Amino acid sequence: TSFSLPQHKPQYNKMKFIGTALLALAAGASAFAPVSPAHGVDSALHASAPGMGRMTAPPGAQNPVTQQIARSGNSHPQSAAVWDKSNPVLVQGGSLKTWSFPTAAVERVQVVMKTEGRPLDANLELWQGPDNTPYKMRVYVEDGAQRSFNCVIETPRGPNTVSIRNTANMEFPLVAGVVAAEVRNRESPMAGAVTQPRTIQGGALRTYPFDPNVESVRIVLMTDGRPLNSRIELLQGPNNIKQVMELYTEDGMDRPYIAIIETPGSGNVVRIVNTATMEFPLVCQAEPFLVTDLGGSAEAVMGGSGPGFNPW
Question: Does residue 134 contact residue 153 with C-beta atoms inside 8 Å?
Fold first, then answer.
């Protein structure tokens, strides 16, 4: 007698369909599961803002090019000390960098800027609160390595923010450093100087020639509390401008202009122009700061009231 095995095809096909459906659901669910980034991968989506849960290196600390530019060129010892204390930052052409000082204990900051030998063109501003800019300056230097920029900005009644915008093209980066300066006393910045201050009326100008052995000059501009508008130029030869600073401060007594201008070579003349109207005179002082011996001596004699004279 012949017999046949029972047929189970419908049940087998049903189980096969259920298994395929479960696999499809699992694959679809995995598409919505969070994917953790690979170790060391950093992208615009996974990157955190500085100080928001991710430790970031200080700007310029890992950049050997920035360190090389900051320590190159013709810088006197006072500027070199500021570069060592500050953390140099590379500011590309067309970009902006800021340094914030949220505490009111910082009443004075020192700003230094230089390049690797290319022109330096930047805007320097002090921000104090929203839409309040009590200090503005436009800086141009023909050779940022031979004549680095060095000035002091008074920052009373914090918090304050210092901004530097490189207004040059992309091919002209600069290196900048901002460091809190020590306030030793509250005397006038013109106290203890050798030369007498001169008054420049609105619309007038005054020139100061210097000998070839003067390596740098200290400039101080003040008012009696009125706004200060001025243009400071360094000339070397007829109509040969090496450095220009266009300055505005809302209070020339509370925030005077104090700067060190490097004057290598011979035939250096500092020209100070009061660009304000006649109602806003200013008081200026320009004297040698670093004087060298043309006979070959490597020792430098600081200008002012002695070897330990503090320019600020």
Answer: no
Strand 135-141 vs strand 205-209: parallel, antiparallel, or unpaired?
Answer: unpaired
Give the model's pLDDT for residue 50. Answer: 36
pLDDT value of position 135: 95
Q: Distance between CA atoms of 76 and 7, rounded to whole angstroms?
A: 101
Q: Which residue has the tokens 């609160």?
A: 129
For 174, residues 6+ apart whose C-beta sits below 8 A from its C-beta are: 90, 91, 113, 114, 115, 120, 122, 144, 166, 168
More confident call, 219 vs 64: 219
Select from 153, 82, 77, 159 the least CA-distant residue to 113.
82
Q: How many CB atoms lie within 10 A of CB 234?
A: 23
CA distance 301 to 295: 13
* Residue 10 burial (C-beta neighbours within 10 Å; 0-12, 13-18, 19+): exposed
CB contact at 8 A, 218 and 303? yes
Residue type, 84: D
Burial 201-214 (b: 16+ CB within 10 A, else e): eeeeeeebebeeeb
Quickly list H helices, the chain: 9-30, 64-70, 77-85
Strand, helix or coil at 146? coil
Main-chain dihedrals φ then ψ at residue 38, nearest 5 degrees = -65, 155
DSSP bridge pairs for 125: 136, 163
Nearest to 164 by CA among 136, 130, 203: 136
Instruction: Give the type of residue at 289.
Output: F
Start-to-end C-alpha separation, the chain: 121
Q: Is 34 helix (H, G, I), strand (E, B) or coil?
A: coil
Question: Binning pLDDT at 50, 70 and 90, where does residue 160 land?
Answer: very high
